[in-house]
UniProtKB/TrEMBL annotation:
Residues 215-242 form a coiled coil. SMART domains: HATPase_c, HisKA. Gene3D superfamilies: 1.10.287.130, Histidine kinase-like ATPase, C-terminal domain. It comes from Phaeobacter gallaeciensis. The lineage of its organism: Bacteria, Pseudomonadati, Pseudomonadota, Alphaproteobacteria, Rhodobacterales. This is histidine kinase. It holds the Pfam family HisKA.
Length: 461
């Protein structure tokens, strides 16, 4: 019950109303005390007027007047003369004097709270202004026990009434919250659960109908989110199906093209000058097509296997990549340099780290080779406090604007003509599997710099 929104609202409402009533209680008690004393002053004034009207009142009637007024003595000051009008024996000395004519609200509150917490019966003197200007002042002497008893009784009644009002108000608000807030929220939660169970079912998309503005805005935002997610799931499904078809086509096409490569040697030995001139272009076209098919098949896997972490020699990986790419650069115009300290080890999956470095180096080599000018690709590395940094620096022409805008997007981030852009996408995916990332730090006519950041430990980079 207390864990629900309506239950907590019920408790909080009761507490807050009671707190408000307590804040009202203090001035209410002070006002009750002032009214009580003022009433005693009025009664004493009436009794004194009766005596002034007839000086021959006997002592018994005088006692009855004092008892009715609830006082021991009555003093009137009229025409600058102080006159003891009614009097009776005082059982004990007077404890204090309270002048109601000049008392401010804080004084009245302080006196009232003091009287509430002071037990026993005391004698006090009270001074006030007579009603209807019947003199300069009126002074009475009275006991405090009846006053304190009346104040306590009044306070108890106020607290009981406050509790009843608090509970009644809380129940009304509880019902209102359940009708106007809890029920619509439960409806939203129900739509969310239904949609989560079958996101492809459009019937699970919420239809906004809340009367409360904030809830309706939440329903509209949820409807938009569900609609977009449903479309995205359908698109993902279609892309998955398309990817499966492309993978099959790429697999078969790769086999066909690989077979075609076997015949290129015979074509190159042909005596026909035209055939000998066109043969290298045919070989290059077939090689690029095979490379694209292999890249498509690699990227089209459902997911890369999780990396198997171990401390591996980065120097050996860099030298291996440099040697492989040097052999691939048949013209010899692109120099591949591995400048990594021999003792530097990193915590990574050796095969996946090799693929990351190889993809970046191959992209750089191919970019330089496409210019027809000599150049250099350099692999360097350093160790920082929280990560290993591997840099691939080339002297190529830099990446075009389109490639920079779609740097790690498959089939869109290619920097050279005929490139697929899969190399960077695969490298980024593998780096993220290590908790790191691939960054392009610089590009331009003077060359391009890529960084591979691999975090130390097992936290995210």
């Amino acid at each position: 019950m207390l864990n629900t929104l309506s239950g907590r609202f019920l408790v909080l409402t009761t507490v807050f109303v009671m707190l408000a009533e307590v804040l009202i209680f203090v001035p209410s008690i002070s006002r009750f005390r002032l009214d009580y004393l003022s009433d005693r002053l009025e009664r004493a004034q009436l009794a004194s007027l009766a005596l002034l009207a007839d000086d021959m009142l006997d002592s018994e009637l005088e006692k009855e007047l004092l008892a009715n007024a609830g006082v021991f003595n009555v003093v009137l000051r009229r025409d600058e003369m102080r006159q003891l009008v009614l009097s009776s024996p005082i059982p004990q000395p007077i404890e204090g004097t309270f002048d109601l004519r000049m008392a401010g609200p804080f004084t009245l509150i302080s006196d009232a709270m003091t009287r509430m917490v002071t037990p026993g019966n005391r004698i006090i003197r009270v001074i006030g202004a007579p009603v209807r200007d019947a003199g300069l002042l009126i002074e009475i002497t009275m006991e405090t026990a009846p006053l304190r008893s009346a104040m306590i009784d009044y306070g108890v009644r106020i607290l009981i009434l406050s509790a009843v009002i608090s509970v009644f108000t809380a129940l009304l608000l509880f019902m209102a919250v359940r009708v106007f807030l809890v029920r619509p929220i439960k409806g939203v939660v129900g739509y969310m659960q239904r949609y989560a169970a079958a996101p492809e079912d459009a019937r699970g998309i919420i239809q906004p109908n809340a009367g409360v503005t904030e809830l309706r805005e939440a329903e509209e935002a949820l409807m938009k989110l569900q609609t977009e997610l449903t479309h995205a799931l359908k698109q993902k499904e279609r892309l998955a199906q398309l990817g499966g078809a492309v993978a099959k086509v790429s697999h078969d096409l790769r086999n066909i093209l690989t077979s075609a490569q076997l015949f290129t040697d015979r074509i190159e030995t042909s005596e026909d000058p035209l055939v000998r001139r066109l043969a290298p272009k045919l070989v290059n076209s077939i090689t690029r097509a095979v490379s694209l098919c292999e890249g498509t098949l690699a990227f089209g896997r459902a997911e890369e296997p999780a990396p198997t972490f171990a401390f591996v020699s980065l120097h050996e990986i860099a030298c291996d990549v440099a040697e492989s790419e040097t052999l691939a650069a048949s013209g010899g115009e692109v120099e591949i340099v591995a400048s990594v300290p021999a003792g530097l080890t990193v915590r990574a999956d050796q095969e996946q780290l090799y693929r990351i470095v190889m993809n970046l180096v191959r992209n750089a080599r191919q970019a330089i080779a496409a210019t027809g000018k000599p150049g250099q690709v350099k692999i360097t590395a350093s160790e920082e406090d929280d990560a290993w940094i591997i840099r691939i620096t080339d002297t190529g022409p830099g990446l075009p604007k389109k490639a920079q805008d779609n740097l790690f997007t498959p089939f869109q981030g290619g920097a050279r003509k005929g490139g697929s852009g899969l190399g960077l996408a695969i490298a980024q995916e593998l780096a993220r599997g290590h908790g790191g990332a691939v960054y392009m730090r610089q590009t331009g006519p003077e060359g391009t710099v890529f960084e591979i950041c691999l975090p130390k430990g097992d936290g995210a980079f």
